[in-house]
Design goal:
β6 and β7 form a beta hairpin. The mean pLDDT is 96. The protein is of the alpha/beta class. It has five helices and seven strands, in the order ααββαββαβαββ. The chain has a single domain, classed as Rossmann fold, CATH 3.40.50.150. α4 crosses α5. The protein is 26% helix and 29% strand. Bound molecules: S-adenosylmethionine. The site of S-adenosylmethionine has 20 residues, from β2.
Length: 199
């Protein structure tokens, strides 16, 4: 997505770094105590969320369609042997890795053509006790992105009804959703949810 290639160099800001760290803390409350986690960050961008999970023996794989975003990702984690990225569109292609203990994604699902299908695809990449943690906008009126069409936006957020339907379709025994932030933009409030899907 050319939009993200252009944004890559200026993507990381102190505000986004702080916010992503707070999102990671929320996700960690759902994690089992485990010495090492194999983690996939879908739509990783520059790895803002995933960077908070690079500790102990964890391994992080980032997937993104934007070469520019992944260049920053690679620069940031060049010293980390346990981190790597894959440039691909997961709606159209597959990856060779699987058995992930944790799959995380922030603000990427509204760029997907078929998010429900992606949940099914991510489920196949999970370890038996794995967890999927999706962060995205609650349903909004289309005003969040200044130019949705050119920014590759396919959904104006997702209501609780929609994320519940993903859990049902994916046959996940455990599913929760909570609002973890309210983003304020141009005097409008946009709630952000964390949805957890697990076996
Ligand atoms: C709004 S950015 C969020 C980036 C990062 N997760 C963050 O929180 O800073 C959305 C990201 O999803 C990626 N993306 C969109 N569709 C994708 C797809 N089908 N497969 C992989 N990555 C995708 C974009 O290239 C972009 O980097």
């Amino acid at each position: 997505m050319s939009h993200f290639n252009q944004m890559a160099n200026t993507w990381d800001t102190p505000e986004k770094i702080k916010l992503s760290a707070s999102y990671a803390e929320k996700i960690k409350t759902y994690l089992p105590k485990q010495e090492s986690l194999k983690i996939l960050e879908f739509g990783c961008g520059t790895g803002l969320l995933g960077s908070n999970f690079i500790y102990e023996k964890n391994q992080l794989t980032g997937i993104d369609t934007s070469k520019g975003m992944l260049e920053i990702f690679e620069q940031k984690f060049s010293n980390q042997k346990n981190v790597h990225s894959i440039l691909l569109n997961l709606e159209e292609q597959d990856i060779n890795e699987n058995n992930f203990d944790l799959i995380i994604s922030a603000m990427a699902f509204h760029h997907l053509i078929d998010p429900a299908k992606m949940i099914l695809k991510l489920k196949k990449l999970l370890s038996p006790n794995g967890i999927i943690a999706i962060i995205d906008l609650d349903q909004e009126d289309g005003s969040f992105h200044p130019d949705p069409k050119n920014m590759g936006v396919h959904h104006f957020g997702f209501s609780e009804e929609v994320t519940n339907s993903w859990a049902i379709k994916g046959n996940f025994p455990k599913h929760t959703r909570e609002i973890i932030n309210i983003m304020n933009k141009d005097k409008n409030n946009y709630p952000v949810f964390l949805a957890i899907f697990s076996n």
